[in-house]
Amino acid sequence: MKIVSFGDGACEKTRRYLDSYISNELLVETNHEVLRHVETCASCAAELEARTRVRRRLKSAVESQAVPPDLPVRVRERIRSQGSRSAWTFGSTRWAAAAAMAVLVMAIGVRTWSGHRLQPLPGITDRPAQDAYIQRISQTISSMLSPGLKDHVHCAIFRKYPRNPPTPDQMVETIGPQYAGLVQLVKSKVPERYRIVMAHQCGFKGRRYVHLTLRDGGHLVSLVIARKQPGETLANLQPSMRTSGIPLYQSAAERFEVAGFETDQYLAFVVSDLRDGRNLQIAQNLAPAVHGFLAALA
Amino acid sequence: MFFSHKPRTEDFEAAALPHLGDIYRTATRLLADSTKADDVVQDVYLQAWKSFDKFEPGTNCRAWLYKILFHTMHHYRRKWLNSRIVKESEDLIEQTVAWTPPVPDQLTDEEVLAALDEVPPDFRAVVLLVDVEEFAYKDAAAILNVPVGTVMSRLSRGRRLLRERLAGAAGQYGIGRQEGYTA
After folding, report:
1. Of the residues A100, A115, A130, which one is the last residue of a structural domain?
2. Residue B183 placed within a domain
3. A170 and A253 together in one domain
4. Contact A71 B24 (CB under 8 A)
5. CB B42 to CB A74 under 8 A?
6. Separation between Cα atoms, residue A57 and residue B105, nearest integer Å
7. According to the 3-state scheme, what is the secondary structure of A160-174?
């Protein structure tokens, strides 16, 4: 193999070990040797910094890729339909196989019939049906993402909107001085076609929210923010992506998609019926700025 | 016995689904194609589910899924690429060894990923496993079914090739090439 000269022997040896040093794969003694050299050699220190930076940059770029929001659902569906076929290992008799196959066909049929049908939304004045609907769909996602879903459906979906949206001054007033900056901030981070149609503080089932709703044609998108309750964190979920180092978590519940992120003090959710990654895209646009805003409040 | 019970889907989903994002992102970068990655990931999870009774609870589920990913990838590569996997010659790689290009900070995620996609697949795979997914050398070796020494050499070359591609991308903006750095 071609030996590459980096100058004196210590530098050459150090650089040969740098890859393993960065991967944390060196023995303790060798690790110390590399560290000692790097502390006294500006050139090797710069080389180490450069390699580490590339690694960090790569990791961040790969983790920024969005995972299709419906992929977990599709994977689960395939596993479960396969599971229906293989959950039991059959004996060798033909009648058993035939009987089991009949059960399987029925099971798949029932599943297909019931799994892909969206129930109509309850009427706008039918509060008990709305509560039952919210209760039902919020059980299908993580309890940590459900507050955003619940408030979006309760407050943004089951609502009549005035013909003319409130003015910026009215929104600043209804959302309160502490969160007033969010109105302009959100507006600047979403495509122009999204209009803010509501910005206020609201409550559902005893929990308070800061809530902004945007409309694009027939789609409503909510940014729902809640102060964390003791022990609440999204960190136990698997992030779908990271944006500017902020993990974004997402899930789907019936026709809605929920993307969440958190600061030390707040949970924030972007909820809508936008599909094909568009809800997550909006969350990705909003998260860095909203995260910064909320972190500054805390 | 007439029927024998297999593992429950709930157990499998609890163990395997938390790694879905990582598996998808790695597949996307290995194939440089998110649509194909979507197909691969579904196949990986189906294969994993079928052999979940062989998985030992308490062992590394993530590494196990990655092993299945690379096994599945091997099949897809043959199907889609329908060509031999081009490996860069030692000479070409060695030409890059003496150059330590500057690291561009200004590149976007898309540009970084495009540079990664240009790294030959065998090297890219090791860089993804070690640098992005943070597998230990021995785990990466087991996933790829190669010796640890091969992981080390591919990692070193993969990192260097990536850095070269990144510097090339930065050069298009007039970023980075400093005095003293020569090819």
Report:
1. A115
2. no
3. yes
4. yes
5. yes
6. 8
7. CCCCCCCCHHHHHHH
Chain A residue at shortest CA distance from B157: A19
Nearest residue of chain A to residue B101 (CA atoms): A50
Q: Are residues B49 and B118 in the same domain?
A: no
B28 has a chain A CB within 8 A of its CB: yes
CA–CA distance, A164 with A153 (Å, rounded to integer): 21
Are residues A254 and A175 both part of a single domain? yes
CB neighbour burial string for A148-170, b if at least 16 within 10 angstroms, e if fewer: bbbbbbbbbbbeeeeeebbeeee
Q: Do B6 and A89 touch (CB under 8 A)?
A: yes
pLDDT tens by residue, A144-201:
999 999 999 999 988 878 778 889 889 999 999 999 999 999 999 998 888 899 999 9
The parent domain of residue B28 ranges over: 9-81
Question: Residue A36 falls within a domain, yes or no?
Answer: yes
**A78/B113 touch (CB, cutoff 8 Å), yes or no:** no
Query: Which chain B residue's Cα is nearest to A83?
Result: B9
What per-residue confidence (pLDDT) applies to B73? 87
The CATH number of residue B45's host domain is 1.10.1740.10
Q: Cβ distance B7 to B51 under 8 Å? A: no
Residues B61 and B102 in one domain: no
pLDDT of residue A90: 37
Mean pLDDT over A212-221 rounds to 87
Considering the domain architecture, whether residues A145 and A293 belong to the same structural domain is answered as yes
As to burial, measured by CB atoms within 10 angstroms (0-12 exposed, 13-18 middle, 19+ buried), residue A181 is middle
| pLDDT of A124 over the 80 cut | no
- Per-residue pLDDT of B119-145, as tens digits, reads 999 999 999 999 999 999 999 999 999
> Do B99 and B73 belong to one domain?
no
Query: A153: distance to nearest CA of chain B, Å?
Result: 27
Contact: B109, A53; criterion CB under 8 Å: no
Residues B103 and B139 grouped into a single domain = yes
Range of the domain at A34: 9-63
- CA dist A76 and A81 (Å) reads 8
pLDDT by residue (tens digit) across B43-95?
999 999 999 888 877 788 999 999 999 999 888 776 655 444 444 444 444 44
